[in-house]
Amino acid sequence: MTRTADRLLTRAARIRAATVRKCEIFAVRTTRQPLDIGTEPRRSRSGPANTPHPLRGWLRRHMPPHLRVGLLHAVAYAVLALSLAACVAPALLTRSSYQQQYREDVDAAPCARFPLGTDDLGRDRLTRLVYGARTSLLLACAAALLSTAIATLVGGAAGWIGGGLEKVVLWGTDLFISLPWLFLLLTVRALLPLDVSPGASLAITFLLLGLLGWASPARVVRARVRSFVASDFVLQARACGSSGVRLFVRQVVPNMKPVLLAQFFVSLPLFVLSEANLGVLGLGVAEPLPSLGSLLRELQGYSLLSSRPWAILPAVVLTCVVASLHLAVSRSEVQP
C-alpha cells in the first residue's frame, strides 16, 4: 500500500511539473516580440499596377462605407424600377411599335426622333430595347414561377413522404444538377421545332426554362420540409386530427414562404441570362418579337460596333438588370 501511494504521489508531481512547464512555455511564446534587426519592411505584392482608381480613392476618403453601399443599392433599385415600368407600361417609355418600319431611315444614327437610331430594317432601336427587356423579364418571371411550383410539388412530396420517393427525387435532382445547364438547355431546344411563330417560340422558351430549372430549388424545398416533419406545430396539428395533404397545404406550405420567395428571386437572373444565350444563338424568341437575346445577335460582328457603337446598349442593359437583381437579392438576404 505504501509503495502504491508513493508511486501515485510521484506520478502526480510529474504531471504537475509538466503542466507548469507547458504553461510557462505558452506564456513566453505569447509575450515574445519579434526581433527588429534592421530589416526593411515587407513590401506589398500588389505593386504599383494595382493602385486604386482616383475616383474609388476619393469615394473611400469622403464617403462612409454604408453610404457607398446605399448608393449602389439605390442605383440597383432605380434600374429595377425602370425595368418594371418597361414591363407594365412600355408605352410610357416609347411611342412607336416594335414592328413599325421606317423605310426612309434605315440604319439611322441617333437623333431627336430616334434616340438610339434604327436597325437594318428601319425599326426604332429604343422601342425594340424597351419591348425586348419586357419580354425577357416577363419570361424569366414566368419561368421562375413555374420552376418554383414544380420544386414545391416534387421537393415537398419527397420531404413529406420520404422513403423510396425521397431517394428517387434525390437521384433525379443529382442527375439534373450534374449535367451542364447551358448544354442541356441548348440540346433540348435544338431538338424542338425552330420554324414556329413568335408566340409559340415564347411558350417553348418559357416551358423549357421552367421544366429544366426545378432541380436545385427542389433539393432546398425537400430539406426544409424534412425539418418540419417532426416540428412542434406539425405534431400539434396531427394531434388535432389533421393529416395528409390538408396538413401539408395548410401548415407546412405557409411556413415555407420565405424559402420559396428566395428560390424565386434567385432564379430570375439565371433565367434572364439563359434566355439571352438562347436568343444570341437564334434558339429563343422568334422575330419580330424582340428580346434581349435577339437584340444581342447584332453584336456578333465587330464592324457593327466600330461603325455604330450605340448598338451595344442591349448588352449594357442586360448587365445592369442582372447585377441589380443580384444586389436586390443579396440585400434581402442580409436584412433581418
Would you mind describing this structure in some detail?
With 336 residues, the protein is mostly helical. The chain has one domain: Orthogonal Bundle (MetI-like fold). Helices cover 69% and strands 0% of the residues. The protein contains 14 helices and no strands. It has helices at 2-31, 54-62, 65-88, 125-161, 163-178, 181-191, 198-212, 215-228, 232-239, 244-255, 257-280, 292-295, 302-307, 313-334. Helix 3 (65-88) crosses helix 4, helix 4 packs antiparallel against helix 5 (163-178) and helix 4 (125-161) packs parallel to helix 8 (215-228). It is extended, with a radius of gyration of 31 Å. The termini are far apart.
What's the helix and strand layout?
Blueprint: H1 2-31, H2 54-62, H3 65-88, H4 125-161, H5 163-178, H6 181-191, H7 198-212, H8 215-228, H9 232-239, H10 244-255, H11 257-280, H12 292-295, H13 302-307, H14 313-334
Oligomer: single chain
The CATH superfamily name is MetI-like
CATH topology: MetI-like fold
Enumerate the spans where pLDDT stays under 50 for 5 or more consecutive residues. Answer: 30-49
What's the count of strands? Answer: 0
Radius of gyration: 31 Å
Strand content: under 5%
Largest sheet: none
How would you sum up the global shape? extended
CATH secondary-structure class: Mainly Alpha
Distance between the termini: 66 Å
Number of domains: 1
Supply the number of helical segments.
14
Secondary-structure element sequence? HHHHHHHHHHHHHH
Secondary structure class reads mainly alpha
- Mean pLDDT comes to 78
Give the CATH architecture.
Orthogonal Bundle
Residues in helices, as a percent range: 55-70%
